[in-house]
Amino acid sequence: MALANEHYLKLKAGYLFPEIARRVNTFAQAHPEARIIRLGIGDVTRPLVPAVVEAFHRAVDEMARAETFRGYGPEQGYDFLIEAIRERAYAPLGVDLRPSEIFVSDGSKCDTSNILDIFGLDNRVAICDPVYPVYNDTNVMAGRTGPADERGYYQGIVYLPCTAENGFIPELPDEPVDLIYLCYPNNPTGTVATRDQLARWVEYALEHDAVILFDAAYEAFITEPGIPHSIYEVPGAERCAIEFRSFSKTAGFTGVRCALTVVPEALTARTPSGERVSLNKLWNRRQSTKFNGVSYPVQRAAAAVYSDEGWEQVRREIAYYMENARIIREGLAAAGITCYGGVNAPYIWLKTPGGMSSWDFFDRLLEECHVVGTPGSGFGPSGEGYFRLSAFGDRANVEAAVDRIRSRWGR
Ligand SMILES: *Cc1c(COP(=O)(O)O)cnc(C)c1O
What we know:
By secondary structure, the protein is α/β, with parallel strands linked by helices. It folds into two domains: about 10-45 and about 310-410, Aspartate Aminotransferase, domain 1, CATH 3.90.1150.10; about 50-310, Aspartate Aminotransferase, domain 2 (3-Layer(aba) Sandwich). The protein has helices at about 15-30, 50-65, 80-90, 110-115, 135-140, 195-210, 245-250, 280-290, 295-305, 310-335, 360-370, 395-410; strands at about 35-40, 100-105, 125-130, 155-160, 180-185, 210-215, 240-245, 260, 270, 275-280, 340, 345-350, 370, 375, 385-390. Strand 3 (about 125-130), helix 5 and strand 4 form a beta-alpha-beta unit. The radius of gyration is 22 Å and the shape is globular. The chain starts with 15 loop residues before the first helix and ends with a helix. Pyridoxal-5'-phosphate binds near residues 132, 246, 249 and 259. Pyridoxal-5'-phosphate binds near residues 107 and 246.
């Protein structure tokens, strides 16, 4: 008799996006004339930049000729991409990585999930609230939790509320934890952590022999100087942190698939008998066994992001999205709505006017402005009373959406 992984049954049904789709469809059917603008998505909308497309095409042509054809590549990624990442992404930050510390993959969603393979089940895990749901659900699947309570908190996870009151930076936990997920610039709140704020977490992790899982998927959207792009800008982080980065949002690779994970050689964890083991070695073993690398053309396309031409083109696309973010942020503020984020991240996290619930605001925005966003409560109980708008979209749509919101809520 085959037994199923019963931990999956503890997962709450994927509720947020299906429920949004259901409400939008119902509204659209009743109002076929309404021009609905969607600012709910967490996906890029602009095409790949020319330098990336050219490199992608060239690599496909290489695959078409016997002399330049390539089969399986290194599981960890090709040297040309790892070198580009070292020199163009990390060296300018003063972070000196060895090639063996960088692992190229097909996405940060998979890496932030798969990383759990190398950690024991008995680790206490701390997760921010609100949060990118992957961290939560993958710990449930791994069997690290009990059932969820009525709020959606799983037994056994330590939740770290992030609200306006703490500036969306979690307080250090008051019980010991071993694995800590942090994501800055943050999805969904669009807020960032300063160097000092990250340094407190690094200090905590070093003191408690904990590991920080740092998701930097949005680092390329940082516009203000002084905000760390990598946790390794904080001294000591190489002994307590794993960092995830992705080409998805940075360079429009959500449909192409390429990311990277940094596991420093100085990073260790304990066995139950107290012996220290290298997490870099374990991750290398895991990837070599379960993963066969990212396709050659995709890695060539990713490396082109770091060419002078590619980088300039990618920066222009990011600037386009960040101008959308500015229009949303300033437009809502002019309508008297309190907004967070949107300066160093492509998300605006707004406080619902008049203390409305997240879903009530969703319905009002849809019915009165024909604009779709994401209810904050869908990202965790501490997101209640907040709402996420995405800057990934077309300029004309963003402007129209903001005009509608201003004429509805403006003073
Ligand atoms: C979009 C996103 C990612 C990127 O995931 P990929 O699998 O690389 O596309 C990672 N973390 C967060 C928080 C995200 O929003």
